[in-house]
Predict the 3D structure of the following.
Amino acid sequence: MQRRAAAAYFAFFLVISVAAYAYIGVAESQRPAVSLDADAELTNESTFTVDGTEYTATNIHMSSGGGGGHGGGGGGSMAADLSWTNESSQYTATLEHNATTTYQNDTYRVHTDSNESTVTLEEELNVSGLLAEDSSVKNTLATQNGTEYVVYRSNNTQVPLSEWLPEPETVSFTTGDTYPYATDSGTQETTISDVSDSGATLEWFAPRENTIELSEGGNITLNEQRFFTHFPDHHTVQIVPIQQYDQYQETLDQQDYFHERKNGIWGVSILSGIAAVLMLGMAYMPVRG
């Protein structure tokens, strides 16, 4: 009698377990899918244009770390890079007061005057070079009481260095003037936009490469137009108008509800399977008496 009852319970729980498992397969076909009307659907190195600016998608990948798996799946989160060139980006630099700078391949010291809004460059004289060029004087200076002197070879006459040196060349600029600013890549034509006692601000416009990272559901602004991004698979990123974000979020909520219910059915299937095995085991337990 005990074995017949256990066998009946075994069959009952086995049917529930199998039925729940079968229902999971059927339910998967009803999983809510994100469906959006994207302005662009990009793969690696593909491009799209917004108001004349061309954007390029690169490095589409699954990043490490936790993730919700919406549209990208798995235990990480999808990411990509979006790059473009701003053809007229603003750059600035500062000429600091009393610092040295390169002007026409020579070294000058910078002097700024906020009252006059002027920048004056004063040539930095190469003392050792000038001494070497003048055969009438020695190549080294003499120092007495903190004052440096030039020594003539013929009679060892000494002249203060400040009196011997030629008048340094000076060049002046004012606010709004064009200034040839020396950079690592060459000379850049700039405009003096502001002058203070601490320095002068230079301004110019040139191309600039820009890159931002895209993430699942992340908002981006391109040429003052707002979008968000969605990864329908591991190789594609969609650029979607922000007006569809509420629809996107509603689908994600539906997916969360679906996964919650699916996990519940998995629980029923697993627990029923365990119960069926226990019932079968109990049927063969020894009976006292």
Notes: The chain has two domains: 2-89+211-283, 93-208. The chain has a mean pLDDT of 84. The CA atoms of residues 53 and 211 lie 13 Å apart.
